[in-house]
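In response to the reviewer comment on reproducibility (Comment 2.3), we provide here a single inverse folding case reported in full, input and output, so that an independent group could reproduce the run without further information from us. The structure tokens appear first.
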């Protein structure tokens, strides 16, 4: 079988800068509930595969790049373990940007 690599977009700073400050709510991970973290291996990763902005990195648990997360809530909706909860952004303040990072 001839397998081809698939071109994937990666989050990056665009014309409008970073996009994480568009959010009205943010995903908050509870790692103790994550199936991958509990198994100690890269399994599940449904949050990673469903994120439309590719701002989740696979892991145990996966990591969410808040600079680019737009708060759609799909990751929380798809997580079979309810390990991700959408919380109002105003309870957390704006996300921290790296030194000199463009907004
Ligand atoms: S979808 Fe939920 S259980 Fe699965 S890896 Fe992501 S956070 Fe963990
Ligand atoms: S809330 Fe949406 S954009 Fe943010 S990490 Fe989850 S799926 Fe991705």
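Designed residues, in position order:
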């Amino acid at each position: 079988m001839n397998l081809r690599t698939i071109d994937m977009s990666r989050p990056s700073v665009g014309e409008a800068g970073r996009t994480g400050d568009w959010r009205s709510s943010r995903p908050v991970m509870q790692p103790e509930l994550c199936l991958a973290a509990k198994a100690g291996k890269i399994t599940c990763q449904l949050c990673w595969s469903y994120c439309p902005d590719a701002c989740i990195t696979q892991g145990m648990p996966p990591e969410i790049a808040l600079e680019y997360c737009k708060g759609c809530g799909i990751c929380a909706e798809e997580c079979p373990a309810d390990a991700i909860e959408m919380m109002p952004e105003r309870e957390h303040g704006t996300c921290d940007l790296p030194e000199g990072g463009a907004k």
